[in-house]
C-alpha cells in the first residue's frame, strides 16, 4: 500500500494514526500542500481534487478519509481473524462522521497571521498557474483549483465563516466532554477509531495555542488528551513533528522553501 500524505494535513494524521494503531505496513510519500506538491501533475492525475491523503493499494485508490480508515480496519480485522473480518459498531461510525463534519481549514487559516497567510496563498496560486502551463491536458482541473483558491481568500474576509466554525467546534467538543464523562474513550471503554479521528483535531487546537479555551476548560477532555498523547501512535504521527520545539523546525522548513521559491520565481 502507498499512502500520499503530509504531517501538516489533519486528515492525513487521522489515516496515519489508524495505520499505526492497526500495525499495517505502508509506503509513505510526503505531498506538502503548503508548497503546492499536491498540484504536481503525477499526483493531480491520480486525484484531480488535489486533496490528501490518498491511499493506493494496487489499482484500488481511495480519497475519502473515512473510507480509507474503514478500509484499513477491514484489512486489519481480516488478518487478525483469519479472513472473517468484523464491522465497526454504529456508535463508532457515528462519532467518526460527527468529527469529520467539522472542517478545520478556515478555523486554522483565521488564526494564522494575515501577512503569512496571504503570502502562502499568493505562492500557491502561482504554483497552480505554473502547473497549468506545464500540463495543458489538466487545465480544466487546475482552473477549478485556482477558483477554489480565490474563493478561500474571499471567505477569509467574512468573519461569519470563523464564527460558524467556532460554534461547530464548541458543539462537537461539548458532546465529547459529555461522552468522556461516561466512558474512558469515545464510543466505549477501549481506544477505537473514533479516538483516531478526534486526536488530530485536539492536536490542531494545541498547535494554534488555543488549548486553554477549547481543551483545558473541559475537565474530562483535558484528562483524555493527557492520556492519548502518551500513545506510541500519537508520538510517531504528530508528536515527532509538533511537540515542543519540533513545531518550529517543521514549520520553519516549509516557510524557508516557500520564501526561496518565491524569490527565485520557481514555482
UniProtKB/TrEMBL annotation:
Residues 118-252 form the GST C-terminal domain. CDD domains: GST_C_family, GST_N_family. Pfam families: GST_C_2, GST_N_2. Signal peptide: none annotated. GO terms for molecular function: glutathione transferase activity. Residues 1-80 form the GST N-terminal domain. InterPro entries: Glutathione-S-Trfase_C-like (IPR010987), Glutathione-S-Trfase_C_sf (IPR036282), Glutathione_S-Trfase (IPR040079), Glutathione_S-Trfase_N (IPR004045), TCHQD (IPR044617), Thioredoxin-like_sf (IPR036249). This is Glutathione S-transferase TCHQD. The lineage of its organism: Eukaryota, Viridiplantae, Streptophyta, Embryophyta, Tracheophyta.
Amino acid at each position: 500500500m502507498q499512502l500520499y500524505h503530509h504531517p501538516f494535513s489533519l486528515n492525513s494524521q487521522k489515516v496515519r494514526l489508524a495505520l499505526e494503531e492497526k500495525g499495517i505496513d505502508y509506503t509513505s510519500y510526503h505531498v506538502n500542500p503548503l508548497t503546492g506538491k499536491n498540484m504536481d501533475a503525477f499526483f493531480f492525475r491520480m486525484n484531480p481534487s488535489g486533496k490528501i491523503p490518498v491511499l493506493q493499494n494496487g489499482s484500488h485508490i481511495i480519497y475519502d478519509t473515512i473510507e480509507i480508515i474503514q478500509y484499513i480496519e477491514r484489512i486489519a480485522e481480516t488478518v487478525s481473524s483469519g479472513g472473517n473480518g468484523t464491522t465497526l459498531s454504529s456508535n463508532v461510525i457515528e462519532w467518526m462522521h460527527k468529527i469529520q463534519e467539522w472542517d478545520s481549514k478556515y478555523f486554522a487559516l483565521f488564526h494564522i497571521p494575515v501577512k503569512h497567510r496571504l503570502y502562502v496563498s499568493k505562492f500557491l496560486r502561482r504554483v497552480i498557474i505554473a502547473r497549468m502551463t506545464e500540463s495543458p491536458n489538466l487545465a480544466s482541473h487546475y482552473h477549478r483549483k485556482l477558483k477554489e483558491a480565490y474563493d478561500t481568500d474571499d471567505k477569509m474576509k467574512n468573519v461569519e465563516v470563523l464564527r460558524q466554525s467556532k460554534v461547530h467546534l464548541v458543539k462537537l467538543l461539548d458532546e465529547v466532554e459529555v461522552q468522556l464523562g461516561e466512558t474512558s474513550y469515545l464510543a466505549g471503554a477501549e481506544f477505537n477509531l473514533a479516538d483516531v479521528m478526534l486526536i488530530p483535531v485536539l492536536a490542531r487546537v494545541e498547535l494554534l495555542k488555543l488549548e486553554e479555551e477549547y481543551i483545558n476548560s473541559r475537565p474530562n477532555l483535558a484528562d483524555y488528551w493527557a492520556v492519548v498523547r502518551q500513545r506510541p501512535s500519537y508520538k510517531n504521527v504528530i508528536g515527532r513533528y509538533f511537540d515542543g520545539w519540533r513545531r518550529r523546525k517543521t514549520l520553519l522548513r516549509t516557510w524557508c522553501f516557500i520564501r526561496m521559491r518565491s524569490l527565485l520565481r520557481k514555482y
